[in-house]
Specification:
Elements lengths: L2 H9 L32 H7 L2 H9 L17 E5 L5 E4 L3 E2 L7 E2 L7 E6 L6 E6 L5 E6 L9 E4 L4 E5 L10
Antiparallel strand pairs: 1-2, 1-9, 3-4, 4-8, 5-6, 6-7, 7-8
Pfam family, one: SelR
Organism: Pseudomonas taeanensis MS-3
Catalytic activity: L-methionyl-[protein] + [thioredoxin]-disulfide + H2O = L-methionyl-(R)-S-oxide-[protein] + [thioredoxin]-dithiol
Length: 174
């Protein structure tokens, strides 16, 4: 972290009570979708049995994989990126781009398939996004992406699976 960012974050400490709580933002504040997503009511212990430990840590303990470690960084084929836990489609490949950050990045998600909450882990507030269905942590939304939207959806590769175009999407996990 750059020294300036750290100092700016520290300057916000006295204002944290004024910034609001860490409560999840409602899905109504996420992108609109023509098909509403029904959230799963599945305990984290059940997901732990289905996922590799590193994927579980990212999805349900909000861990972050090491930059540059995901093979999805190099994925250039047409297809769909789905949640690694519940298999909900989250991103279409035409919205993937090389951000230079070391994580798979997208200009926009599939409408209505993400939910949001505030993240203060680095002291200053960030927008964290999750799968709207299972609640699995995907990454963070930044406003430094390419035009016209200016959005960078920075995703953990461990939180995604890629399904090439022409292959059937797996059935949603319940």
């Amino acid at each position: 972290m750059k020294r300036r960012s750290l100092l700016q974050g520290m300057a916000l400490l006295p204002a944290l009570p004024l910034l609001g709580s860490y409560a999840p933002l409602s899905l109504a504040e996420s992108s609109a979708s023509s098909t509403p997503i029904t959230p799963l009511d599945k305990p984290h212990s059940a997901w732990r049995e289905l996922l590799p430990p590193a994927a579980y840590a990212v999805l349900f303990e909000e861990d972050t994989e090491r930059a540059g470690s995901s093979p999805l960084n190099q994925e250039k084929r047409a297809g769909t990126f789905i949640c690694a836990a519940c298999y909900l489609p989250l991103f279409e490949s035409q919205h993937k781009y090389e951000s230079g950050t070391g994580w798979p990045s997208f200009t926009q998600p599939i409408a209505g398939h993400t939910g949001f909450k505030r993240d203060f882990k680095l002291i200053f507030p960030r927008t964290e996004y999750h799968c709207a269905r299972c609640g699995g942590h995907q990454g963070h939304l930044f406003d430094d992406g390419p035009q016209p939207r200016g959005e960078r959806w920075c995703n953990n590769g461990l939180a995604l699976r890629f399904i090439p175009q022409g292959e059937a999407l797996p059935a949603l996990r319940s």
